[in-house]
Amino acid sequence: MPTPLAYNAFVMNTASHIQHGQWRHPEARQGDFNDVELWIGLAKTLEEGLFDAMFFADVVGVYGPSGGGYEVFAKEGLQIPSNDPSVLISALAVNTKHLGFAFTSNVQQEHPFNFARKVSTLDHISRGRVAWNIVTGLQENGARNFGTDGLVDHDKRYDWAEEYVDVAYKLWEGSWDEGALLKDKENGVFSDASRIHKINHVGEYYRVEGPHLPSPSPQRTPVLYQAGASPRGRQFAAEHAEAVFLRAPSPKIAREGIEDTRRRAIQAGRRAEDIKFFQGFAFIIGRTAEEALAKAEEFDAYASADGYLAHANIGTRPDGSVYPPETPLSELETNSSIGLLDWIRRGITDREPTVADISDSLLRNGRIVGTPAQIADQLEIWQDEGGIDGINVMNWRLPDSYTEFNELLLPELQRRGLAKTEYVQGSLRTKMFGADRLNERHPATRYRGAFAEAVVEA
Amino acid sequence: MPTPLAYNAFVMNTASHIQHGQWRHPEARQGDFNDVELWIGLAKTLEEGLFDAMFFADVVGVYGPSGGGYEVFAKEGLQIPSNDPSVLISALAVNTKHLGFAFTSNVQQEHPFNFARKVSTLDHISRGRVAWNIVTGLQENGARNFGTDGLVDHDKRYDWAEEYVDVAYKLWEGSWDEGALLKDKENGVFSDASRIHKINHVGEYYRVEGPHLPSPSPQRTPVLYQAGASPRGRQFAAEHAEAVFLRAPSPKIAREGIEDTRRRAIQAGRRAEDIKFFQGFAFIIGRTAEEALAKAEEFDAYASADGYLAHANIGTRPDGSVYPPETPLSELETNSSIGLLDWIRRGITDREPTVADISDSLLRNGRIVGTPAQIADQLEIWQDEGGIDGINVMNWRLPDSYTEFNELLLPELQRRGLAKTEYVQGSLRTKMFGADRLNERHPATRYRGAFAEAVVEA
Fold first, then answer.
1. Single pTM value for the model
2. Does the predicted interface ipTM exceed a cut of 0.95?
């Protein structure tokens, strides 16, 4: 029997996250994302399906070129409007027992002192089921919502992220010693100040005195997700991440990325098994192959080429409008060395690739169509040849994509040992790695006990 | 019959908020504030008692002088440890239907773009039951957690707050026109970009491009709370607040403050009834006067003088330690012109007032001891002579103080018409002022339609 894969539901607090146009289907409910009941129902469905976590993507601006309009994004519901995922989590946590909640937050949007406190609070509320997807920001408009002229240089953003996580690690791991919280009613000692420390962080981006305000939460540091694909991003993931999100085009490419990241992790003093890799898939499941293909046709019919193009950034003109589908790739005004374009050019050699090939490629990215047995066959290949540890299950429709997963695919996956049949008890990190807290190889743990003298000076 | 008063429960996501030492009582559960079940139970209790809102105080640092220690604060559980109230609200909102949720957030702790999005999300989740208590920060350590050397000058903090609320108002009121959200499945138009606007804010503290990411929530701008007592703070409240929190020492002083604030509001183009005033009280309720006095003795027995002194700032030395109770006020090393000290000196003329008089005065601040009838008599006086609109009910113990309120005091208040007997349907602002949205006299509403041309330039 294979090792069971882990399963996350990849969602966003918006109408059109990845599979654009699908919100228009009569059964689709993702357009009702303002309604908390949609999310509570979905969280319960995911827990019934033994999903490990609900993974919230997020952005803090509209896509598109600097200074461009956002007509297509508004029309498509493409990540605008969108809501803050972090304040939704407690409503879902109190309606579930095991499901983890990963949410995305970029280093520009919130000061690390406030962010670290928020995460600790959520970890208390959920009893240790919170994960953070660390991102550096990828939208010009997002940067300009926070006072900068635009995105700072890519590698510089990672330097910023390094300091950001450093501040958070100090607060989560170093500010409160174990045993500082006493709640001793008889002696009137709520906590022991000699075991609570200022962090006195002084860096290039932040000065933070501390102490951390919350007492240690079940996991202290949340489970850390990252999705960096660039060399600098991959290095960051190797050093910091416990889970990495991939959208590799083949098992072979997945394996190369996984092995490279693991090699870097080992060089940084960690072990290969300290990081789990999740490949993104969008399943189209039929009881028969014919039914699956008919469903795929229906999804194609609702797909919005404009949405995929706009989401890709490269599919829009400098004013924010979308290129007509017949536009040859050679006419795109982009100086971006996007891997996708190279990928399309390598795949289409008998004619000039066009903008329509971009949207088509994105629509098909990560899609697996078939019966439960056919899909499970594919996942076995991805596990064996790609070396993936888990899957980020993307959706076409909320909540249908996940109720179908539970009803049709999960039994087959369980039968083959590709999916667990019950939850492990305990925190999200316990479910993933067997312990509530980060292991001692993670860089955050160097701050345990590191500030023990600060209180003497205070 | 009098007009019913409004009732808020004044709480904090911490062990010892205002009534220090009480967490040590065997029945007290506030020490379990990390447990979300405590809060869910309390929210349900408050809704059973027809409370209008649960009002969360908050701070983002430890009290005490600059560079001082925090031994007494840790020992007392005095606002450290503490958790972020904002991420708790959705868990409470989905377990209630009518109760409002006011939370405190200061202008330094979170960027207004992120904050405005968070509030809009909470207003969607709660279906219009969110209020924001605007504060400028009052702790040196809090300021140093966010990169400044300490608190900026008091009046300067209000200038900063003016720009902060300005950015938030632009996002809440001006960025999305009514009707921009279409969710039109047939025509494939989720929202209409021509009715969604960038705000292009450029000020002294912030540059924010926009547009706001959430679609308009039920209230758009949350109900606005403020508690400024200084002239500058009172002016800010007069211009911006819809609800003001008082802790006046007498009905006469309450009335003076209310009339002054209302006069300023009228000068700013608003009406007297646009602001509601909530006086803070801590009830000790007995079925008989003897029982009430016995309870008061029990609270006194658990009260921590050190806690009250430390909380007052003036009660601690520059190193953060608490003065001995017999210390004469004249020996305090404080250059702060705290009204409390003047108040004590005016009340004690036959001897030298001491530090013990500070803690005693704070312990008795806002306390009303008696039978339901005796307490209701007092509230009638405060309503008639003080002119208050509502009460912030402080607590001694969670959840007992509120279950006792419901069981013992509420029936008497309802009998006299001092408390409502059922909820008004609708949002928090509808319950308080009869409409979901701010009225046109509020300064935020000048941004309605103000950015309509921005999209043409985009």
1. 0.97
2. yes
